[in-house]
Amino acid sequence: MKLKKTSKIGILVVLCLTLLIWGINFLKGRDIFRTEKVFYARYKNVGGLTATTLVTLNGLKIGYVREIYFAEDLSGDLIVKVALHNNFPLPVGTSAQISSSDLLGSKVVKLNLGKSSKLLQPNDTLASQMDADIMQQVNEQIAPIKAKAERLIENLDSIVSTASKIMNNESQQHITESIRHLHNTMTNIENITGNLNEVISDQKRGLSTSMSNISEITGNLKNNSGKIGQIINNFTVFSDSLTKLEINKTVGHINSSVADLNRILSKIDTANGTLGLLIKDPGLYQNLNYSTENLNRLLVDFRLNPKRYVHFAAIDLGRKINTITPEDTQLSDNITFKVQLFSSPTPVSLTSPVFKGIDQVFESKSGHLYYYTTAEELSYSKVRIILNKVQDAFPEALLKCYKKGKEISLKKALKLNKN
What we know:
Helix content: 40-55%
Order of helices and strands: HEEEEEEEHHHHHHHEEEHEEH
Mean pLDDT: 78
């Protein structure tokens, strides 16, 4: 069957359009006949990276940068869309590193494989890294050498200026005077040594007299050795009388008292008795503190709302006295508690210093507000302790009750547990 002229023209147009589309994509680094996997990377600054930039793994081209656009959260970060036509699996933790490929500053995206056993899936986000460009690396290497050269020039300048000051006429004159003074000093030292020799020769007779006096003193000590021995004997008798005193008995009483004190302290240290428990068991102190606080709240509530606890009647005096529902330490398994710390129109990092001292903090969003709460607790008494602990840092903290994940009032929660 012979094709018509219009059919030939149509086929030719289709072929031309196909070649045109293929050529445009080929120039952009795409191959429309290959399947591609798309990944994303987020950067603060792409350093001149453009679309169609090569993506390599260990030096082998495995893809290209398809698109670069700003993040939707208006943070100014840039999202780089990477298309890979190689089926090599990428482990979790693989990073996309923007590097310079030559001295002219051309960019390339290098993939650094992670060490995880799990693999990334298409449309996952890669970790981002940014290498310093060639000029920055050169500047970093040259900067220390430049600083040392500047210091060396400054030292040479100070040495030259000092030498010029020393070598002037006035300094030379000072040096000459110093040498002359040194000569006079040496002459004076020589005269002093001569005078010392004369003094020593004149005092030889006095030295001999002093030696004879020392000999007389040693002779007197020898002659009075008997009296010295008597003095020593008297001191011995005095020491014997000291030993006869009841010093050992007194020391024994002191040792006994110290032993009794040690036994008392050891009992306290081993948490035997109320005093030991107060020192060793912080839970007892916390329970006492919590009980005191609850008693204060009960008394205040009793004073403000007496009808809630005692009912009066003009005739029937036999009505029962209602007391406040006890704060059960463990409610129904379906009822949980949280402490809502505060709400904010903007998100707050969970690692912020404002949450210091709180074990776990959770974030939830409702409407235009972000809510920050502590972990769920089944114990009502424990969540009250947490509320009292955080109210100093978060005065607006609230106690939230939930049944099967749905928020309910505290009154209803206590009532359900009672039933």
